[in-house]
């Protein structure tokens, strides 16, 4: 009589234990996620702690300036803002040429904080936007990985992403760039797609379209999403994994997502007119053809189905051919075949260097080196293959998406170093899956072989798998059957006990056979912990040393201590306080955003690089002799010229090192500028062996003017050589300011009257015989610049 009572009472007890275990696990996961978010935010504050709360790099200064305008003037003025301080004399319509996601996000945060009487400045909000969204990105990674392989893998992937150096490089405090919010939007969009794929919920499909819309607002990299998801849908169709859930996950995204994307002014009709989006429409048609085939299969007889399939496939192929013909016609009408220059450089890595040097000149558009992978993702490079293998056991729709994501992102990161940022989340997800599975195997092996734990583990493992189903059926009937079970024995319960005993033993024996040896499991577990510790140390070092220094303020250490180089802000402050508001400043395009934001002066070109001819004009001026360069700048109403020079302090990213790109870009539009004229036997030199064209060009003169006075030799610490032309004077430009460490030099164009003041009317007093004799003898003064 006791046996039936024990077996009946065990079900609710087991159900209660599982419920408590799940509740405790949920609470623990929540606190772990909270700590991961705090860690993701904190590790990005080294730049503020070591330096100060300042905007970094170049593009963030434009975003900061736009956010200031938004906070001051409101959203309507922002959409209609025509900026006359950039690209003089053309100007720029900001609202129609900028991805507004970052600006609107930071502006909304600033507005909310001020509404709550938290008076933070716009600059402070901009500085801390990226660290805040890095925490959001970590949580989104947890949600995505959890949908693929469970909670353990999700927590591990979130912790890895919170610290991965590749993401830190673009999300430290002060890195106010589009990627600060775009990576969160990218991961969250993928999560909602997988969530819809797993649940078939139209609610999540709608949220997915809204997340995609936010991604479109934030970054031009949204084209990666609208191509990767169609690739996955097509993969599912080809491998026979079509389902209604797949249709619900994809169809609303294409329809609603495209309509929302077209609302973004910078995208507009490009959402339906450019080649980057055509793959999504083609897969959309294929999906509907396949869905219709499955539909008619369910309502027709097999014989009629064959006839209908032939008809549907014929019509579908005809429709696809018509769409492809239209796409080919649209593509053929475009010089770039409907692709943007950056997209073409991804598909053909040699395209930019051949046809668009302005794209190839950007350092972040260069292919990465192998050491950069170890620097940016560290040990994850070795865990990614294991994570890919784990995704195949078993292979699901969600895990196949992760495999496709990692494969495509690896390729794109190998073409352009900037896209290491897209590869990093994929590497963290696959590495998190690999680490979670490995920990699961090793800890289970240890549990099975420890004395006193193995027997309980076997029973719990067997009972846990059957507990939910039994508990759902038994918990409802517990109260009604309680008295009956006490009075008479249950035959069903006895039969279940007899059946469960061999089943439990079989499962336990199977798990025991899969267990690894105890010593191997312990050693492997310790090695994984050591690997994780090495990853943490490397990430902290990268965050503190490699990626926290703002480019606007530089530091170096030597035997006599720390040296701070604040020349950029010194130069911009001089321009702001010592020049007229309407003065125009010419420089290479790298410094346009900073000049406009910090000096509040009008620039000729900036980092938007939308007008190649305008940039080529500045490059031609820098590559020309002094007189010709003066005429070019004077025609553009330029009053000051700014150059960056690192020869004195050893700063390698100066204009002399960028000069060949000025020559190439200028020569691409103005054929009289030829790169070989600046090279000696194919080598770029600035010493005594440099070509006369190089020694007499404006960039050389503005960089090395009076440089010999610093050490008496004119030794360039970047090029590690003495300059070739040490003593010369400027006739059309005058030096007005040089910073403390000679890193930024500013020159003013001399007005025409100053150039002719020294001339007299001697030519009129000369006799005609003298001038004619000079012409006949050929002894007239030659132009020294040609």
From TrEMBL:
Main location class: endoplasmic reticulum
Segments crossing the lipid bilayer: 23-43, 93-113, 125-144, 150-168, 180-205, 211-235, 247-272, 278-296, 308-332, 373-392, 399-417, 513-537
Enzyme Commission (EC) number: 2.4.99.18
InterPro entries membership: Oligo_trans_STT3, STT3-PglB_core, STT3_N
Coiled-coil region(s): none
Taxonomic superkingdom: Eukaryota
Signal peptide: none
Cofactor needs: Mg(2+); Mn(2+)
Keywords: Endoplasmic reticulum, Glycoprotein, Glycosyltransferase, Magnesium, Manganese, Membrane, Metal-binding, Transferase, Transmembrane, Transmembrane helix
Compositional bias ranges of the Basic residues kind: 754-765, 773-786
Domain STT3/PglB/AglB core stretches: 582-641
Cellular component, GO, one term: endoplasmic reticulum membrane
Entry membrane topology: Multi-pass membrane protein
Pathway linked to the protein: Protein modification; protein glycosylation
Biased composition (Basic and acidic residues): 477-486
PANTHER family: DOLICHYL-DIPHOSPHOOLIGOSACCHARIDE--PROTEIN GLYCOSYLTRANSFERASE SUBUNIT (PTHR13872), DOLICHYL-DIPHOSPHOOLIGOSACCHARIDE--PROTEIN GLYCOSYLTRANSFERASE SUBUNIT STT3A (PTHR13872:SF48)
Complex and partners: Component of the oligosaccharyltransferase (OST) complex.
Protein name, as recorded: dolichyl-diphosphooligosaccharide--protein glycotransferase
Source organism (scientific name): Hibiscus trionum (Flower of an hour)
């Amino acid at each position: 009589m006791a046996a039936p009572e024990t077996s009946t009472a065990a079900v609710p007890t087991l159900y209660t234990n599982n419920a408590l275990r799940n509740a405790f696990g949920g609470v623990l996961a929540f606190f772990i996620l909270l700590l991961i978010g705090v860690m993701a935010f904190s590790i990005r504050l080294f730049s503020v702690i070591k330096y100060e709360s300042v905007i970094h790099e170049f593009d963030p200064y434009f975003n900061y300036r736009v956010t200031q305008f938004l906070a001051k003037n409101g959203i309507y003025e922002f959409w209609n803002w025509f900026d006359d301080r950039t690209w003089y004399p053309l100007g720029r319509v900001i609202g129609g040429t900028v991805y507004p996601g970052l600006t609107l996000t930071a502006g909304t945060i600033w507005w909310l904080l001020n509404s709550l009487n938290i008076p933070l400045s716009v600059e402070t909000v901009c500085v801390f936007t990226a660290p805040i969204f890095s925490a959001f990105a970590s949580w989104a990674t947890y949600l995505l990985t959890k949908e693929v392989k469970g909670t353990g893998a999700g927590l591990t992937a979130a912790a890895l992403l919170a610290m991965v150096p590749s993401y830190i490089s673009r999300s430290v405090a002060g890195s106010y760039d589009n990627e600060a919010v775009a990576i969160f939007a990218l991961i969250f969009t993928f999560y909602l797609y997988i969530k819809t794929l797993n649940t078939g919920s139209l609610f999540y499909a709608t949220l997915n379209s809204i997340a995609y819309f936010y991604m479109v607002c934030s970054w031009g990299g949204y084209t990666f999403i609208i191509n990767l998801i169609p690739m996955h849908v097509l993969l599912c169709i080809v491998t026979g994994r079509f389902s209604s859930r797949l249709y619900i996950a994809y169809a609303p995204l294409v329809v609603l997502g495209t309509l929302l994307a077209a609302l973004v002014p910078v995208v507009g009709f490009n959402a339906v007119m450019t080649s980057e989006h055509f793959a999504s429409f083609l897969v959309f048609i294929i999906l509907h053809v396949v869905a219709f085939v499955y539909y008619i299969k369910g309502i027709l007889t097999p014989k009629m189905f064959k006839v209908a399939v032939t008809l549907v496939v014929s019509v579908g192929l005809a429709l696809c051919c018509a769409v492809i013909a239209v796409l080919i016609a649209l593509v053929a009408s475009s010089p770039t075949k409907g692709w943007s220059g950056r997209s073409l450089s991804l598909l053909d890595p040699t395209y930019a260097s051949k046809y668009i040097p302005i794209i190839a000149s950007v350092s972040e558009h260069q292919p990465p080196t192998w050491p950069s992978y170890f620097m940016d993702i560290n040990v994850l490079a070795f865990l990614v293959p294991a994570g890919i293998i784990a995704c195949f056991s078993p292979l699901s729709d969600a895990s196949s998406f992760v495999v496709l994501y990692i494969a495509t992102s690896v390729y794109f990161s190998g073409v352009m170093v900037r896209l290491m940022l897209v590869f990093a989340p994929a590497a963290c997800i696959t590495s998190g899956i690999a680490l979670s599975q490995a920990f699961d195997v090793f800890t289970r092996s240890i549990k099975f072989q420890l004395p006193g734990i193995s027997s309980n583990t076997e029973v719990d493992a067997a009972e846990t798998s059957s507990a939910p189903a039994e508990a759902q059926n038994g918990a409802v009937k517990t109260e009604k059957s309680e008295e009956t079970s006490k009075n008479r024995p249950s035959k069903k319960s006895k039969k279940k006990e007899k059946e469960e005993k061999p089943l439990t033993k079989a499962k336990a024996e199977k798990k025991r056979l899969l267990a690894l040896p105890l010593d191997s499991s312990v050693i492997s577990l310790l090695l994984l912990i050591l690997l994780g510790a090495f990853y943490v140390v490397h990430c902290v070092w990268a965050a503190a040393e490699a990626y926290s220094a703002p480019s606007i303020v530089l530091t170096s250490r030597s035997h006599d201590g720390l040296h701070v180089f604040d020349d950029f802000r010194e130069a911009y402050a001089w321009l702001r306080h010592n020049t007229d508001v309407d003065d125009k400043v010419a420089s290479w395009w790298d410094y346009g955003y900073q000049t406009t934001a910090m000096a509040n002066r009008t620039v000729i070109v900036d980092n938007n690089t939308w007008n190649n001819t305008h940039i080529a004009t500045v490059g031609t001026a820098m590559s020309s002799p002094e007189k010709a360069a003066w005429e070019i700048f004077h025609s553009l109403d330029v009053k000051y010229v700014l150059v960056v020079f690192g020869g004195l302090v050893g700063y390698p990213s100066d204009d002399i090192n960028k000069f060949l790109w000025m020559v190439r870009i200028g020569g691409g539009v103005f054929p009289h500028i030829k790169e070989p004229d600046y090279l000696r036997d194919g080598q770029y030199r600035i010493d005594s062996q440099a070509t006369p064209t190089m020694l007499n060009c404006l960039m050389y003169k503005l960089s090395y003017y009076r440089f010999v006075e610093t050490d008496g030799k004119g030794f360039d610490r970047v090029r590690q050589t003495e300059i070739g032309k040490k003593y010369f004077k400027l006739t059309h430009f005058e030096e007005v300011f040089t910073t403390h460490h000679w890193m930024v030099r500013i020159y003013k164009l001399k007005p025409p009257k100053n150039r002719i003041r020294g001339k007299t009317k001697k030519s009129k007093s000369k006799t005609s015989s003298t001038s004619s004799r000079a012409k006949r003898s050929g002894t007239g003064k030659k132009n020294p610049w040609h």
